[in-house]
Amino acid sequence: PLVSMKDMLIQAKENSYAVGQFNLNNLEFTQAILQAAEEEKSPVILGVSEGAARYMSGFKTVVKMVEGLMEDLNITVPVAIHLDHGSSYDKCKEAIDAGFTSVMIDASHGPFEENIEITSKVVEYAHSKGVSVEAELGTVGGQEDDVVADGVIYADPKECQELVERTGIDTLAPALGSVHGPYKGEPNLGFKEMEEIGAATGVPLVLHGGTGIPTKDIQKAISYGTAKINVNTENQIASAKKVREVLAADSEVYDPRKYMGPAREAIKATVIGKMREFGSSNQA
Ligand code: G3H
Ligand code: ZN
Fold it and tell me: What Cα–Cα distance (Å) separates residue 83 from each residue in 119, 218, 241, 245, 271?
């Protein structure tokens, strides 16, 4: 069923695993992620950035595609459709009105008080509709669609506590050195701060930039209260690699099913690997 992230993440935190957020880019990504979740008996969060929603023609198309697939594929595990890095109250409201079950309001780029103000407004509307809310503090490095960072700023534990208390968000993404896109070298995550923020806020934490984080760091993050890990680039890389392989092996191929089908299998295999690594398999 389509649900918010609220219970999913509370359960994950209580039982020391993390639910994966896997980003949608098109039909094949959506099929692959839903099939992986059903096969693994894992809850799953479908992340949709504003850019990806635009690419897929809009929030309504995304919701109807997901609903259709859940019916046709007989999906029984809990699924959330989540706006990733929502840029404004209006965008969050638009996604909620289209049927999203969860939103992220990313007001981390402006002043702290402004972040609180916008996030509170989103929480008020979202919660009145049973929709969960994620907020962010600090800056995730790298670039994802419209979200560009020119430096990594670590979230401040005191501000995190205040944001959670004053807004009533369900989950918090404190930026602690993670990066969107591939890492240059090993990631250097602020685990000390993560532990402090997890304990001070009490809410399940989100780790953005899940691509390229070694298993030992994933496990550490989960042990410090991370209950949601976002992955996008790794699936994109797996899919592009497979398309290149198929097209390089046969210069006569033109039917998209002949290269997108194998790409879909590659995405599914990647997602299954992440679900096992995050410990969410057999938790639905
Ligand atoms: O919000 C989405 C993510 O944080 C994905 O990060 O593309 O580095 O896996 P990634
Ligand atoms: Zn992100």
Answer: 14, 23, 27, 32, 19
Query: Residue 133 and residue 34: Cα distance in Å, rounded?
Result: 22
Nearest CA to ligand 1 atom 10: 209
Residue 251 CA, ligand 1 centroid: distance in Å: 33
C-alpha of residue 248 to centroid of ligand 2, in Å: 32
Helix, coil or strand: residue 73: coil
What are the pLDDT digits (tens) for 18-65?
999 999 999 999 999 999 999 999 999 999 999 999 999 999 999 999
User: Residue type at 43?
Assistant: P
Q: Which portions of the chain are predicted below pLDDT 70?
A: 144-151
The ipTM assigned to this model is 0.99
Please list, in sequence order, all residues whose beta carbon lies within 8 angstroms of the beta carbon of residue 165, skipping any fewer than 6 positions away: none
Over its C-alpha atoms, the chain yields an Rg (Å, rounded) of 18
For residues 16 and 196, give the distance between their C-alpha atoms in angstroms, rounded to a whole number: 17
Q: What is the end-to-end Cα distance of the chain in Å, rounded? A: 11
Q: How far apart are CA 225 and CA 206, in angstroms?
A: 9
